[in-house]
Amino acid sequence: MKTVHVTNAVGLVLGQDLTKIVPGEFKGVAFHKGHIICQEDIPVMLSMGKDHVYILEMGPRDVHENAAAEQLSRLAAGANIVRQHASEGKVTMIADTFGLLDIHIDKLLQINEMTGVALSTLHTGTLVKKDDIVAAAKIIPLTLPQDTLDHIEKICALEKIISIRPMPAKKAGLVVTGNEVFYGRIKDRFKEVIQKKVLELGSDLSQTIFVPDDANKVSAAIKELTVENDLVFVTGGMSVDPDDITPLAVRQTGADVIVYGTPVLPGAMFLFAYLNGTPILGIPACGMFSKITVLDVILPKVLVGEKITSRIIASLGHGGLCRTCTEGCHYPNCSFCK
């Protein structure tokens, strides 16, 4: 660092914190280390008794922390991400829409292995609302070599690290199975639960068909609902009991069953299939009484158009055990399926 008279310091980088003291009123940092001195700062510094200040000496390829943070965030941010202005070497990134957060984890790791940079995000797959904070880019030293930023630019050239897939409004159909409901022995509780989850995600439960435990009738109802709906739920009849014929009925439609059974609790008996491209979601009984199940993880993915594979389902096993918190459910702010 070098010493410069404040009148000659405009445009230079302050190399120390400057403390301002007003007896009985204020004592604190008026100018932080790393601040780029502007003309308006000069009278304030002089009034603080600071005729001379320490200035950070920067090489021709050094980038100030704020400018470097701006570059890092610009390179990392993809679709539907808004970047705030840099302050003290940090840029906060917020969601510009309601949707599903996507993080390129391998690229994130590459960047965070570099000296002097930190890129922090929420978990990939997190459901975020507009204006939620989703990530932050931080430069740790006061300056960063341009070479580091050039390397980051190469990493992000083909695919950004942070983006959000918007949650579109879709139409859903529901098949409620079970003799006990169809013949009026008990009141259905599934429709209310499914409708609430669908509405919270901005979509609509447009049609509901009640059918008995008859594989042919369940199969016909599924086919009917796929005509005018973007996805179809089938509730009940998912266990291994002899009266539970929903998996058989789904197969009778000619659907491609991706999984019947998941490594997620609650939700082990969940079924997922495609019938001519339309997602079919088989909801076991836990979906009626458990606040959060595998459905809450899979449904947002389905709505944003993600192709569900057996590998995606299998990967949910790491973190797939709900802790059934006794003090109240905190999902999605917890470890479930993260």
Topology:
Elements: E1 2-5, E2 13-14, E3 18-22, E4 26-31, H1 41-47, E5 52-56, E6 62-64, H2 65-76, E7 81-83, E8 90-95, E9 99-103, H3 105-112, E10 117-121, E11 127-128, E12 133-139, E13 143-145, H4 146-155, E14 162-166, E15 171-177, H5 179-182, H6 190-200, E16 204-211, H7 215-226, E17 231-235, H8 246-252, E18 256-260, E19 271-275, E20 278-283, H9 286-289, H10 294-303, H11 310-315
Parallel strand pairs: 15-16, 15-17, 17-20
Antiparallel strand pairs: 1-5, 2-5, 3-4, 6-13, 7-8, 8-12, 9-11, 9-14, 10-12, 18-19, 19-20
Helix pairs in contact: 2-4, 7-8
Q: Can I get a quick summary?
A:
The protein is of the alpha+beta class. It is 27% helix and 29% strand.
Descriptive overview:
With 338 residues, this protein is an alpha+beta fold. The protein has three domains: 2-56, Molybdopterin biosynthesis moea protein, domain 2, CATH 3.90.105.10; 62-165, Pyrimidine nucleoside phosphorylase-like, C-terminal domain (Aldehyde Oxidoreductase, domain 3, Alpha-Beta Complex); 171-315, MoaB/Mog-like domain (Molybdenum Cofactor Biosythetic Enzyme, Chain A), CATH 3.40.980.10. The protein has helices at residues 41-47, 65-76, 105-112, 146-155, 179-182, 190-200, 215-226, 246-252, 286-289, 294-303, 310-315; strands spanning 2-5, 13-14, 18-22, 26-31, 52-56, 62-64, 81-83, 90-95, 99-103, 117-121, 127-128, 133-139, 143-145, 162-166, 171-177, 204-211, 231-235, 256-260, 271-275, 278-283. Helix 7 packs across helix 8. The longest helix is centred in the N-terminal third of the chain and has 12 residues, at 65-76. The radius of gyration is 28 Å and the shape is elongated. The mean pLDDT is 94.
